[in-house]
Amino acid sequence: MGSRLMHLLISDLVCKELSIKQRGDMLLGAIAPDANSEKGDTHFLGAQFKYGVNRRWEYGRFITKYKERITEPFMLGYLTHLVADEVWAMKSYFSGFEERLKKEPTLYDHYHHDFRLCNAKLNEMFISEGLYEALNSAAYIPIMDELDEKNVIVLKKQALEDFNYPVEHIQQEMSVFSLDEILAYMERSAYRALDVCRSQLGIIHT
Predict the structure, then answer these.
(1) What is the pLDDT tens value at each position of the chain, 206 positions in all?
(2) What are the b/e assignments for 72-94, b being 16+ CB within 10 Å?
(3) Which residues, at least 6 apart from 41, have a Cβ–Cβ distance to it below 8 Å?
(4) Whole-angstrom Cα distance, residue 109 to residue 46?
(5) Which residues touch 30 (CB under 8 Å, ≥6 apart)?
(6) Per-residue 3-state assignment (H helix, E strand, C coil) for the chain
(7) Cα angle: 163, vertex 170, 8; to 5 degrees
C-alpha cells in the first residue's frame, strides 16, 4: 500500500478538486484506515475480488455502511484511502510485484526503505502546499466501529513526523520503485478517487 504521505497528497488533490473547505478533516481521514495494526476491519477486507490475495479491500462496503455520513470531509478522505489502496493492490498483483514479495523476503525491507526516500522527494516537491499545517490543525475524529480515537491520534503524530527527513534522502536513488512510478500511481489513485467521491456527492463531471 502507499505511504502515509502518498495518501495525504492523493486526498489533498481530491480535496482541492472538490473545493472542500475542511482540508484538515479530509487529510486526517485519509490516513485513518492505517490507525490499527490489524487493518482488515479498517480497510473493509472482503472476499469479492480475486486479485491481490491479501489485499481485498472493498470500499463499497464502507460506502454502504456510512452512506448517511459519506459526504463528511473525514469520510471522503477515508474513502480516498481505500480507493488508493485498491489501485495499489491491482498494480502490485497484475505487475507480479506481489509474487516477488513472496519469493524475495528481503524485498519488503527495500520496499519500505524506498518509501522513506520517496517521502523526502515528495516533501521537496510539495513542501509549499501547507499539508503539515492542515493536518496538524485537524482534530475531528468521528465515531466509527472500526476506529479507536487514540490510535488515530498516534497515527497523526507519526504522519506529521514524516515531514522531517534526512536531507541526503532527497538525492538518494530508490531501488524498487522509481519516483515517476510513484507519481503515476498517485495520479491514477486521485483520478479514481475523484470519480468515486463525485458519485457520492452527486456531482456530474463534464
Answers:
(1) 789 999 999 999 999 999 999 999 999 999 999 998 777 788 887 655 544 444 455 788 899 999 999 999 999 999 999 999 989 887 766 566 667 777 777 877 888 899 999 999 999 998 778 999 999 999 999 999 999 999 999 999 999 999 999 999 999 999 988 999 999 999 999 999 999 999 999 865 54
(2) bbbbbbbbbbbbbbbbbbbbbbe
(3) 145, 146
(4) 27
(5) 7, 8, 10, 11, 12, 77, 78, 80, 81
(6) CCCHHHHHHHHHHHHHHCCCCCHHHHHHHHHHHHCCCCCCCCCCECCCCCCCCCCCECHHHHHHHCCCCCCCHHHHHHHHHHHHHHHHHHHHHHCCHHHHHHHCCCHHHHHHHHHHHHHHHHHHHHHHHCHHHHHHHCCCCCCCCCCCHHHHHHHHHHHHHCCCCCHHHHCCCCCCCCHHHHHHHHHHHHHHHHHHHHHHHCCCCC
(7) 35
In this structure, which amino acid lies at residue 179? L
Q: Which residue has the cell 503524530?
A: 157
